[in-house]
Amino acid sequence: MFGSEFRSVGEAGLVAEIQACTRAEAQAAARRLAAVGELAARATEPEDDERQKWVVDLWACAAAEVGAAMGISHHRAKQQLAIGLSLRERLPKVAALFAAGAISAKLISTITWRTHLVLNAELAARIDAAIAEHACSWGALSQQRLDLAIDAIVETHDPDARRRFHEAARNCDVQIGKPDDATGTASVYGRLSAPDAALLEQRITELSTSVCDGDPRTCGQRRAAALGAIAAGAEQLACHCGAAQCPRAGAPDPRATAIVIHAITDTTPTKPTATPTPETNPNSTTTNTADTAEVHDETTTATHTQDTTDDHGGSETTTAKPQSRKPNRSTDTPAPPADDEVAPAAEPTPPSEEPTSEPPTPPSDPGAGSVYEPQPPAGAPAAIILGRGGGVIPPALLAELIANGATVRSVYRPDDIADPGYRPPQPCQRFIRMRDLTCRFPGCDRPAHYCDIDHTIPHPAGRTHPSNTKCLCRLHHLLKTFCGWHDQQLPDGTITWTAPSGHTYTTHPLSRMLFPHWNTTTADLPPPAHPPPPPSAQRHLKMPRRRRTRAADTTTRINTERTLNKREVNHYDPYRR
């Protein structure tokens, strides 16, 4: 049992153990960040290295190693690199306290962030000494008071480096969802400019009052529905009065029509029937064919990696385990490129950190409208929403989406015959994305519909088949192609990654956890008849480039913020309200 070794220890001994472990925990974190800082320093030292202008530069390569080693996302890994480098180069006295276990990792994170704008080495040394003098007494402070304590020291020695908000507009943001949201709902909160807020309020009011007086929803419920309708590009809000004479009666709900429900089935397809609705089939799609459902939060237009358009746009939903073989194959409108797994690099100007392109909409399916008839499981499933606004949809809400016009599609396991082309056919793409659900690089959870589809063994030596393809976000696709990462794939989608450092990491498809009864194992492909050709000596020319190095970008941003700070200090009026 957890903690059983302390049953016979007195309270004084327990408190002593807590103190010792707290110090040891801080010391271990300090040692880890020292190693991270060394890796960060090596990534920044060769300033004239050509790779510093690659989109996936040496810093991104270091972040990939750190993220995989720590089991964290690429963004958090970059934060760890920044903290380690700050302790190493700007805050040696604070780092010494940390190494002794006197202050916590959380305190270190705040200190390095609040002092990030200090550029002058002499001023940085003064701030480091002043913080080190007081930091041991800051552990009990609230976050707000801790920020104030650090800012007071920074203000004393380098006023231009204090973190400020120059305008309220810099605080503008919109966030969707938080951990305590009720099932089937998501909170929306943020700050807009006054003109944008007025326009949004006007549009919400127009839509919420466009229904007839018989609509049973409250004003607040209609306003919430109106916001969803705006997101779906609707001109009017569907009325729920149920009256036959209502001009809005029977009109499709634009929010539902922007959603695609993917039903993962258990049996081979029967002859096509009409797309089910709760009226014609009360246990339709996700309630009848699946253990769960999954909704992908996609936009109605756009592409992320290629121009993949569909006959409708919107979110996607999937439900449990296909054992079926293929219906029709269709021509493919691709997911992500790769010339020998290099083509993604041919994108002219991808982002420095994350792919800039928008996600592809679901590909057109010749079999859309046909459904399978599996044995219904016991109980009605909920729906799992994946994407940036993940959550759970209860069965009743899922049935309502279907009744209001959501598109229902089936996901089936492709046959064991590899496709001769480079790009997987649309049904195969859909299976791969539903199987993986996210980027398959260690620590990355970018939704699969934002990702490229990558050949594990490069085409044409490697076959175009689910057993040899997987989802990778653009960043990690480029990383694999150019930066020395290697992968091996099993027929069930399990990937074993080998880092340039020689460490190995194994990732499994997310569907394995969400849909445990879905057998995603496909054919065990024979080894390629001929090994893939060695990479071209000119391959690096296909790597997208930065306009300037990451270090130059960082310096420019810091100088810009310091200039704004100085302007604010010079124009400060204590009597201005």
TrEMBL record:
Task: Tell me which SMART domains the record gives.
Answer: HNHc
Database matches in Pfam families: DUF222
> From start to end residue, where is composition biased (Basic residues)?
539-549
Enumerate the transmembrane spans: none
Low complexity biased stretches: 265-292
| Ranges of compositional bias, category Pro residues | 347-365, 525-536
> Where does the record place the HNH nuclease domain?
427-478
Against CDD domains, the record matches this protein to: HNHc
Instruction: Report biased composition (Basic and acidic residues) as residue ranges.
Output: 559-577
Ranges for region Disordered = 265-376, 521-577
| This protein's name | HNH nuclease domain-containing protein
Organism from which the protein derives: Mycolicibacterium pulveris (Mycobacterium pulveris)
